[in-house]
């Protein structure tokens, strides 16, 4: 994806972000998190390209340096965004639009972090393979140099070959390569630790999202219970109203009968 496309995507996201005029702090935090997630997705794309060069003919010290720079930068930013997402997930008294933003942030954060973790593991595997190969080469060169220095019964031609090899592989170069390998092994340990730390963060955010979902399910069940109770009460009220109406009708009929009987009796008395 080109830079122009990424810029267009960011502009579209900003236009599509709802406004929370009643809660400017929520708006500020959510907008900041969306901007950082946009940068993290861009870092993932660049990291994907650089990791693809590892272990190939395009693998250079500069490529490995860019890989570690991107990993370090993204790792720290993911920690910041993760804390922000955890904070916004526990926001109280959210509106419908704010609830949508909570779900959007957690969904995009988990997707970006999952992709980053995959890229970290790929870089880790390739770094380990490269370091193993480099260490094997250094050990082989060290063994050749030691054998040449040890000397021993050999022909003049063999001695000359060993001396040539010793000159080709000076000890300073072997020590330098060994130092580079140790440095890269330290970088591998840092990547492994970073993967573990971000796994914990991913699980924490997922746990909060799960708890929020369970809370929403509980609220939804309570709403359904209240709705059912309300429907039941309304049904009982309607039945009571019908019963009361029937009772009034019966009373009116009885009163009418009594009036008719009383009228007949009075007429009989007066006419008699």
From TrEMBL:
The keyword Zinc does not apply. Residues 1-25 are annotated as: Disordered. InterPro entries: SNARE, Syntaxin, Syntaxin/epimorphin_CS, Syntaxin_N, T_SNARE_dom. GO terms for biological process: Golgi to vacuole transport; intracellular protein transport; vesicle docking; vesicle fusion. SUPFAM superfamilies: t-snare proteins. Residues 102-141 form a coiled coil. The chain crosses the membrane at residues 251-271. Keywords: Coiled coil, Membrane, Transmembrane, Transmembrane helix. One of its GO terms (molecular function) is SNAP receptor activity. Belongs to the syntaxin family. This is t-SNARE coiled-coil homology domain-containing protein. It comes from Thermothielavioides terrestris (strain ATCC 38088 / NRRL 8126) (Thielavia terrestris). The lineage of its organism: Eukaryota, Fungi, Dikarya, Ascomycota, Pezizomycotina.
